[in-house]
Every structure is written in structure tokens, then in C-alpha cells.
Write a structure and sequence with these properties.
Elements (H helix, E strand, L loop, with lengths): L2 E5 L2 E3 L5 E8 L6 E8 L6 E7 L4 E4 L7 E6 L2 E6 L8 E9 L19 E2 L3 E5 L2
Parallel strand pairs: 2-11
Antiparallel strand pairs: 1-3, 3-8, 4-5, 4-9, 5-6, 7-8, 9-10, 9-11
Length: about 130
């Protein structure tokens, strides 16, 4: 059973940092891509960062580049968020896309939320003074 559990959200002041965790179980992580997404009230869900687990390649949204870092340790994928801004306030989700045995041939830059089949429950991040 595929399971993704996010944690680490909370309230932080502008300029602060948070590290989100996504604990994955029930599937082979190495043939998957894991994405971090966020959804603010009244807005569409958007991709923040993706990692192709097999080789560790990563992509970032323009809004995350230089401030956020996606990483992996065993069965947990992290999103380190620094220099947080009020516009980063959202519910953050991690999700999994199965890439298959030819995972290295699958480009991840163009993936969208609809390409990911398994989702966690989300964790709230609020950036406010």
C-alpha cells in the first residue's frame, strides 16, 4: 500500500525556515519521482520541486529556486525552505509518480500535478509576522 505522510509544517515569521518531511512506504522509491506541491486558498495546486529518486536529479519552480532544497534520506524526502515569504503560505503536499524500470529516461521538468498518482494528506505552512 502506497503511503505518503507529510510533517514539519507550522507558523514561521517572514525570513524564517522550515523543513518539511515526506515519509514514503509501500513502494520502491528508486523507480519513482517525488514531488512537493502547494495549494493556497483560492489558487490551483502548483509544483514546487521534484526529485527523480533513482539519480537524484531535481527541478524547482521559479518561486522556489535558490530558497528551497529537495533532498532524500532513505525513505524520506525533505523540502528545506529558507527565506520564507508570506506568499509561501499554503498547504504543502508530497506526491509520487511511478516512473518504471526505465526511470532514467523519464524527464521530470514538465510533470504536472495530474501526473502524480499518490498523495499525502498535506501539512500547513503559514508565513506571517
Amino acid at each position: 500500500q502506497v503511503k505518503l505522510v507529510e510533517s514539519g509544517g507550522g507558523l514561521v515569521q517572514p525570513g524564517g525556515s522550515l523543513r518539511l518531511s515526506c515519509a514514503a512506504s509501500g513502494f520502491a522509491l528508486d523507480t519513482s519521482a517525488i514531488g512537493w506541491f502547494r495549494q493556497a486558498p483560492g489558487k490551483e495546486r502548483e509544483g514546487v520541486s521534484y526529485m527523480r529518486i533513482g539519480d537524484g536529479s531535481t527541478v524547482y519552480a521559479d518561486s522556489a529556486e535558490g530558497r528551497f532544497t529537495i533532498s532524500r534520506d532513505k525513505n524520506t524526502v525533505y523540502l528545506q525552505m529558507n527565506s520564507l515569504k508570506p506568499e509561501d503560505t499554503a498547504v504543502y503536499y508530497c506526491a509520487r509518480r511511478f516512473l518504471g524500470t526505465n526511470w532514467y529516461r523519464v524527464p521530470i521538468r514538465s510533470l504536472s500535478p495530474t501526473d502524480f498518482g499518490s498523495w499525502g494528506q498535506g501539512t500547513q505552512v503559514t508565513v506571517s509576522s
